[in-house]
Amino acid sequence: MNSFFLSCGGETFFMPEKPPENVGRVVFRNRGFYRVICANETIATSIKGAMLHRADASIDLPVVGDWVKISKVDAGGAVIYDICKRRNTISRVAFGRTSEEIPIAANADYLLICMSLNKDFKMSRLERFLFSFSLQGAQSVLILTKADLYNNPKDVAEVVRIAYPSLAVHCTSMFEGYEDVLQYFSSGKTSVLAGSSGVGKSTLVNKIAGREAMRTSCVSLHSGKGRHTTTSSEIIFLGDGFGCVVDTPGVQETTAFLPELNQEVFHDIEQLSHKCKYRNCTHTFEDGCLILECLQNGQISKQHYESYKKLIGEAEFMKGRLDYTSNRNRRLKIFEREEKRRNSRR
Fold this sequence. Notes:
By secondary structure, this protein is an alpha/beta fold. The chain is 29% helix and 22% strand. The protein has helices at 3-7, 49-54, 123-132, 153-163, 201-209, 267-273, 290-296, 302-345; strands at 23-30, 33-37, 42-47, 67-72, 78-83, 89-94, 100-106, 110-116, 139-145, 168-171, 190-194, 234-237, 244-247.
């Protein structure tokens, strides 16, 4: 097995069994083109027609980080015909007349949320990231970048730790702090970088790799922000002894759509909600609402409460839209198949 395959988790993902011979991991995706790393080679592939026909939505197609089953074809290439069961998925929402979940990456061990301390950091923004990008089986980590451009970075980190005791928080700059985050780049592990454009994701990876693994851009003197550098999702191999990183295009704004996975961000409010007088309490005007009582006496901050109401409302709304789109696509698929069957009988 080559070192890239092992660094990508080729052994750990399938333990205690050995990885099948016809399985590889998607390390690059661009439209219908995929690059898959296998035990002994890297293959350029596309999706088999039957798999495309079965897919009801984008979530049913391979993304960067997926372990896929491939088969060789006569022309010397290969096609992807199935996806191994995912541990988790990080997605965004595509807006339009209908909404659709667009997966960005899959099978991550760590979700590294990068926020710069010069102008990008806000507690409400952090709550949105944590709420929107919660991953089952993955540890969320906050990396506060550009600490050298802020007077008291440790004070900000302490405020976050108090608000979210289970969240690992690290401060980094161009000159220090990288030793603390090395633990998230160990061999066989996959980290996903998330954060706005220009917060220093590329600089962080280059420091860890000891080379220019990712292209960087200068910080704007006008806005204090970096420029958008990453344009597509791909897995980056950091070198022998390290794991790999899924670099995603900068996320300017996130939308929550998986409320059943993300309640941990508002665990304090969720625990109080079970003690409200009414089961269907909306926590807005009802007598006997424990959350409103805690809001009045200062146990819950107004900003935290407003974030809760806003994000929960968005999540419920988006879930309804996604369910509608999914059912609509499924009905269209059934109609097309029936129409094709009727035409073949004529």
